[in-house]
């Protein structure tokens, strides 16, 4: 495993429902990032299709692996990079079961996928109308270390990031489609999740306007001590690159040993209390 890696945060706007155009934009950004030395390039939630596609999601969803993942696998192999992107995943078993998924591909092909566990269905959000929630953490061994995947609203629930970290992830990747009204929440929670898990956290948000929703961007790479290593612009497309040094985790773990001090017996009490809500 490499100790130092370069991570690109590819903050893009998407053309709703146009997978070919969005793949073209993904390819352009991967090539630009590769030219700047990036080894891992991360794109936002639903970067394949755009976020507000509503009922069109039934036509846009694909199995994973499938056509679009195969196209981006070839891009990863061609450039020798790892790529994370978001898309609607169609179940292989039924035609009406869809997941909000994050996909990781690399130089050797398809690596893995993660299905969003927490689906916001309030205010402007209606994800439970379309998607089935996932139920497993997504942590994958790569030549760049163990990478964990989470999606947007998952970050409001510390148990998701904690489980991802306990399964070995030293870098937690959160892809997102957060509108501007949620900016303060995400800026706070991304730092908190990095600190409490002594892990690097890469947050990549959508940008642009879709059906009146303005996505604020602000993508960032955060160190285990909560320091923002690199940050993308607000409200416009951007590509920024930061460096991770996994060796930085050890002294922070010693200084703030949150994982050592875990009290797993409290999780049973948490479950019991939640069941009585």
Strand line-up in the sheet with most strands: 5-4-3-2-1-14
Looking at the overall shape, the CATH architecture is 4-Layer Sandwich
Overall shape: globular
- At the fold tier of CATH, the topology name is Nitrilase/N-carbamoyl-D-aminoacid amidohydrolase
Q: Using DSSP, what is the number of strands?
A: 14
Ranges with pLDDT <50 over ≥5 residues?
none
Structural class designation = alpha/beta
CA-CA gap between termini: 44 Å
User: How many individual helices?
Assistant: 8
| Mean model confidence by pLDDT | 97
CATH class: Alpha Beta
Question: How would you explain this protein's 3D organization?
Answer:
With 277 residues, the chain is of the alpha/beta class. It is 29% helix and 30% strand. It has eight helices and 14 strands. It has a six-stranded mixed beta sheet. A six-stranded mixed beta sheet has the order 6-7-8-9-12-13, with helices on one face. Strands 10-11 form a two-stranded antiparallel sheet. Helix 1 runs parallel beside helix 3. The protein is globular and about 50 Å long.
């Amino acid at each position: 495993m490499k100790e130092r890696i370069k991570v690109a945060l590819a903050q893009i706007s998407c053309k709703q429902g146009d997978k070919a155009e969005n793949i073209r934009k993904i390819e352009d950004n991967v090539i630009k990032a590769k030219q700047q030395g990036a080894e891992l390039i991360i794109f936002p939630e639903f970067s394949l299709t755009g976020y507000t596609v509503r009922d069109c999601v039934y036509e846009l969803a694909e199995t994973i692996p499938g056509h679009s993942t195969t196209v981006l696998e070839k891009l990863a192999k061609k450039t020798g990079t790892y790529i994370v992107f978001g898309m609607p995943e169609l179940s292989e078993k039924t035609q009406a079961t869809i997941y909000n998924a994050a996909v990781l591909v690399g130089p050797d092909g398809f690596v893995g996928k993660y299905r969003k566990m927490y689906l916001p269905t309030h205010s402007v959000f209606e994800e439970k109308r379309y998607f089935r929630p996932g139920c497993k953490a997504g942590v994958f061994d790569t030549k760049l270390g163990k990478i964990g995947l989470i999606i947007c609203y998952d970050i409001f629930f510390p148990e998701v990031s904690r489980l991802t970290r306990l399964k070995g992830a030293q870098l937690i990747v959160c892809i997102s489609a957060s509108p501007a009204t949620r900016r303060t929440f995400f800026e706070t929670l991304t730092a908190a999740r990095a600190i409490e898990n002594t892990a690097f956290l890469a947050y990549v948000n959508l940008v642009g306007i879709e059906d009146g929703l303005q996505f604020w961007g602000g993508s960032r790479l955060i160190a285990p001590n909560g320091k923002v290593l690199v940050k993308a612009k607000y409200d416009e497309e951007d590509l920024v690159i930061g460096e991770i040094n996994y060796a930085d985790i050890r002294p922070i773990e010693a200084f703030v040993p949150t994982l050592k001090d875990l009290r797993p017996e409290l999780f049973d009490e948490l479950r019991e209390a939640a069941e009585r809500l």
